[in-house]
Amino acid sequence: NDDTTMKLLELTAEQRAAALGEDAKGRTGVFTSGIVSIGEGRKIALFFTGARHAGENLAEVLKRRAAQLPIPIQMCDGSSSNTAGDFETLLGKCNAHGRRKFVELIDLFPEQVRFVLETLREVYKTDAAARTGELSPAERLRLHQRESAPRMAALKEWMDRQLTERLIEPNSRLGEAIRYLQNHWEGLTLFLRGEGVPLTNNITERALKRAIVHRKNSLFYKTLNGAKAGDVFMSLIYTAELNGVNPFEYLTALLRHPLELAERADEWMPWNFHSRLARLQAGPDPPA
Prior knowledge:
The protein is mainly alpha-helical and 288 residues long. It has 12 helices and 7 strands. It has helices at 13-20, 54-62, 95-103, 110-132, 137-164, 173-183, 185-188, 202-218, 224-242, 247-256, 258-263, 273-282; strands at 2-5, 8-10, 31-37, 44-50, 73-76, 90-93, 221-223. A 3-stranded antiparallel sheet has the order 1-3-4, with helices on both faces. A two-stranded parallel sheet has the order 2-7. A two-stranded parallel ribbon has the order 5-6. The mean pLDDT is 94.
């Protein structure tokens, strides 16, 4: 999950208070949150525009999650807004965000940055090998524990030494980049301890590009209701794309079969609506 800013012309104080409750005081921002689920090989994208941050919107989604399911894995960057809200997750942090802080310093600290980037490159190569080999989550975890754990341990030792031995200035930009990794180390290395933990939050950042393009093209939403309508269509369209389905074909099918959709919504998801259409063309379902 993650946020991007959005402009909403008519967000009333009452609407903000309804969304935020006691936390509404002093908060003036408007955001579009992106939440992407990748569990069980099915990808679902959800967008929410309003006064809430991504963590608060995630809390609303998780309230509807079956209580008997195991604790979900959450992937985000280090922003506290992504964990705001009352919910429990296994919290992973995005390695791409941490890596990016060093990429920006390559010209200033070439030797030190090269060590960090080359270490992380090998971790990414291991993850790519797991995807190419179509390893199961358990097999992927064992591969990372065997190959990536020693590399990440060496990286942590190197960072600790840079600061404790004052080999670099702690208040420099390089020192700040190192402290970011140190402060979020548990989340950044969750992929070494849990099955299915991704390395990065890139899939959500790609999803939010849809909202960013919309913001640049249309400039704003007028009302909260208009924003909700936009979020619904953006969620449907991008979920279809994530599952390799033509969004126009999918939306057309939903609009042509409103009664069937209302009765059996679970059979009209992007990954199975084709089979439902085929059954409809074959004839009506037998009586229960």
